[in-house]
Write a structure and sequence with these properties.
By secondary structure, this protein is of the alpha/beta class. The chain contains 4 helices and 3 strands. Strands 1-2-3 form a 3-stranded parallel beta sheet, sandwiched between helices. Strand 1, helix 2 and strand 2 form a beta-alpha-beta unit. Helix 2 runs parallel beside helix 3. The longest helix has 20 residues.
Amino acid sequence: SVDYMFTEIPSLDEKKLLGVILTGMGKDGAKGLLDIRESGGFTIAQDEESSIVFGMPKEAIHLGAAKKIVSLDKMADEIILEFNRKNNEVENG
């Protein structure tokens, strides 16, 4: 289950985590994504327009688990931007 995976990951270095939830049925992953965000990680959910089934991202958004909501075609760009931001923070202390 996605929730279980996301719940176990925050035991790592929370500030370096980046959680992404994509199209899917139900609400699996929403609570786990919220755990990542509340632990200081960066979280992204796929938007409704680009989702085939908006269940999982919708629930994550509803819970406030997603810091960003983006279309699938912009997902990689958002991940790269966040990765670069985290690297700059580390380099600049």
